[in-house]
Write a structure and sequence with these properties.
mainly alpha; 254 residues; 11 helices; single chain
């Protein structure tokens, strides 16, 4: 069910947060810049309009996620700090200081799963708009985006001799198949087995056995390369097609 509007009725013997906090604090300033109603419009369709328990306010959930990522905290730490920090509560839309946990930390995970990628992009969009409003960002600074991928996982393998021999042979065989050239032997099965065994022997520090498999891989590449040279030398068009790959193969073999 969609979040219910907050009861704005004042508490008689309790001061509002805005009366006891420093309004010049960065979080207080930022709270006044972000367009919070925009999140209600964007995320309202994610809730069932008439069934279930009323959800927590959208501003509370959005604010907790902003604070979580700003201070690099876990869900549990973000909720615990919210209870202790009046500036965090003001940023999340509370009028009075609250002494109890606003939500269970697992609710943040479920909320993120509900938003998915498009919802998180909405958070980023409002962050950029707030930066432009406050003058921290300028529009010309958004024309180019520099992403630091130092710690991003990459599918990069170290170019060992065995890996280069194997990849070069596979490329030559695939190119020959695409051009309709029938090779004497592709060495696909034995080449893959030799490559796997080379890695296993190297990991076990059995270098003599690993060297034997490496020589096999080099032999398989040489045989495929020479077979292709013989079958393309009478055809200038095929020679041009294979010149680059065969040149690389010769460099590897040398």
């Amino acid at each position: 069910m969609q979040p219910k509007p907050k009861d704005t009725q004042g508490m008689l013997f309790t001061s509002k947060l805005e009366q006891i906090l420093n309004i010049q604090h960065p979080l207080c300033k930022l709270a006044g810049v972000i367009d919070w109603p925009e999140f209600d419009k964007a995320f309202g369709k994610l809730y069932d309009p008439g069934f279930g328990r009323p959800a927590k306010s959208t501003r509370l959930m959005v604010g907790l996620h902003y604070l979580k990522y700003t201070y690099n905290l876990s869900d549990e730490a973000a909720v615990e700090t919210w209870v202790e920090n009046p500036y965090w509560q003001y940023f999340c839309g509370c009028e009075y200081f609250e002494h109890e946990f606003p939500i269970d930390p697992t609710s943040m995970t479920r909320w993120r799963n509900r938003l998915q990628e498009a919802g998180m992009e909405k958070l980023l969009e409002q962050t950029i708009k707030a930066g432009i409003k406050t003058g921290v960002l300028k529009r010309q600074e958004l024309k180019r985006l520099t992403v630091d991928t130092t710690v991003q996982e990459k599918a990069i393998a170290f170019p060992t001799d065995a890996r280069l021999y194997q990849k070069m042979r596979v490329k030559l065989v695939k190119k020959a198949r695409d051009c309709g050239i029938a090779l004497r032997q592709s060495y696909s099965r034995v080449g893959k087995k030799a490559f796997v065994m080379h890695n296993r022997y190297s990991h076990a520090r059995q270098f003599k056995r690993a060297g034997k498999q490496l020589r096999k891989l080099r032999t398989y590449l040489g045989r495929v390369s020479r077979d292709l040279q013989r079958k393309t030398q009478q055809n200038p068009q095929l020679q041009a097609e294979f010149s680059e790959l065969l040149g690389l193969a010769e460099r590897l073999l040398a």
